[in-house]
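Follow-up to my earlier ticket, as requested here are the two runs.
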Amino acid sequence: MRLLFILSIMLFSFSAPVMAENARMTKALQRLEEINSYRPEQSSKHERSKDVLDNRVLDKTNRVVGEVNDVILTRNGSISSLNVNFNRMKLRTSSLYINYSDLGVRPVSNGYKMSYTDDQVAAIVPDILANIETASGKNADTYSTRKIIGRNIYSKNGRKLGKVKDILFDAKGHRAEMLYIVMGYKSVRGEKMAIPFSQASYEGSKINVKDSFADAMIAYAKQ
């Protein structure tokens, strides 16, 4: 009787982690089915990265002062800074990283609008240049939109799942909501899906997802 009890405890201790992992995979699969049910890459609910990166930048008076070169994102997809080509202004440098919150940037129908005039921007260029490294996405917790696109995505245990084809922003271009993935894993090669931006972790040149989420991606691609 005591041996049977010990064996049952051992069996539970081995099966509990497996059951928990399966539950996480099932939940992730349901989430993938939900977000891909309306073809997010074609939906008006989202703006594709090429459209965000083609946006104009306006000053406080609605004067066009430049164009977006790159969008720097935080881990949860919010915009940290914009790399802007100020080709409509006479500055010491044409391209600058501007802090999204410090300059009161917000998305508008025809681009991104700052809460500064062009003269005010010109006056604070030395301060902007002083903070260039943080704003440029070299910080460990910020990421370049241009550099994310085209990168491979892996599971934590090293399986190469596919490649990031695009980043899908919300309809206003205010935050990154999804990564659009082309699968490259075995029998599901070529299948496409969107996954939540925050589901991935960005470590150096690699993009990773948890093993249970990777299993869900493969299962969804097989459907």
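Run two:
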Amino acid sequence: MARYDDGGEEVRLAKAGSSSRSAASWLTTTPPRFVLPPSDQQPVRLVFDVPKDARPGGHYVAVNFTAHQEGEAGQQLTVDYSVPVYVLLTVSGHFARQLDVRLVPRDTWRWRGGHARWDLQLHNSGDVHENVSGRVHVDGLLAGSRSVAIDPGVLLPGEHRTQHVDVDLRDAPDVWRADADVRRDGAKHATADAARVVVLPWWLLVLAAAAVALVAWRVRAVRRQPWDGDEPFPPGT
């Protein structure tokens, strides 16, 4: 059974048959062991004996090819490396397809622009593996738009996956909105909208505070001017 980290790179193997979606007990390999000379090839036949009561939907198995180096007499074999090959199966019948998508910003209020991050959370709550791809769009109310590709790959039934979407925002007042459009084979796109992100730079607040202070100072200065009586009203009234 294959599992992926948040970056989609690291692969870990679970114990055979530990998942209800595992097809490990159905599989027979022929030949199970063989010697592969240098620069030679060896076909391996995979035979799946699917039970009659198998659950409809997606099932999967990892065939792990392990190379050994023969040791001296009386010594144990040493493993050089292993190569997993992942096989995805779909058992026909009635099954549901459900892909849940969330797009969550790390911050909804920012005092400056620069690096911003959204978390794209995918959960395959259906019964069959989904081949996903797509894009995340980030649009500013006053600035232009950005687009980031979603890491393509296979999402197994019950699997959760998170992708970090990083965008550089300009250091100016703006309101940013983001949405995700996740494509999958043979089904309607799954979409999600994120909460708005407001950028209100600190320097703008400093300028606003300075402007307010200047206006207040000017008003007080006008009110302090003496009234010579020639004007119809005293200064500042």
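The only thing I checked on run two: The mean pLDDT is 82. Let me know what else you need.
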